[in-house]
Amino acid sequence: MCLWMEETNVQLTAYTDYSLRLLLFLGSQNSGKRSSIKEIASAYQLSINHLSKIVHELGKKGLIHTVRGRNGGIELALDPIDINIGAVVRQTEDLTLVECFDPELNRCVVSPACQLKHILYDATEAFLSVLDEYTLADILNNKEHLNFLLQNN
């Protein structure tokens, strides 16, 4: 008997993807080095405008510091070991997979009897639980290689 499983297309929003990339870039830099939005956008071939919005939001969330002026730039606000990947995803991603996860918007007539929402909730929690096991420091264990690739793109 052959079971055919269709490929699932689970993906994070570009906002979360770019947020994680930004943190990865900053973490790969030498200690004390500030980076510019232009430098990061160039390394990843991303829009400067989009990245600027993300920098602003991550600054408000306390994950990065932004310094204006001639010697300004962007740097991590926390040690990489203190930046949990699951927490970053929770802060940047809308995890309301279906409308029944939001009591304000839920209009589904079968919601009171539906078991699917519990399965989806458990799946989301399992996903986040795995991400909670990792910090930015964990994904920077090949920092020199990352930095080389980012600088030579």
Walk me through the structure:
The structure is a single chain. By secondary structure, the chain is mainly alpha-helical. It has two domains: 12-83 and 135-153, Arc Repressor Mutant, subunit A, CATH 1.10.10; 94-134, no CATH class. The chain contains six helices and two strands; from the N terminus they run αααββααα. It has helices spanning 14-28, 37-44, 48-60, 85-92, 116-132, 143-151; strands at 64-67, 73-76. The protein has a two-stranded antiparallel sheet. A hairpin with a 5-residue loop joins strand 1 and strand 2 (73-76). Helix 1 (14-28) crosses helix 3 and helix 2 (37-44) packs across helix 3. The radius of gyration is 19 Å and the shape is elongated. Residues 1-5 have low confidence and may be disordered.
SSE inventory with pairings:
Layout: H1 14-28, H2 37-44, H3 48-60, E1 64-67, E2 73-76, H4 85-92, H5 116-132, H6 143-151
Antiparallel strand pairs: 1-2
Helix pairs in contact: 1-3, 1-4, 2-3, 4-5
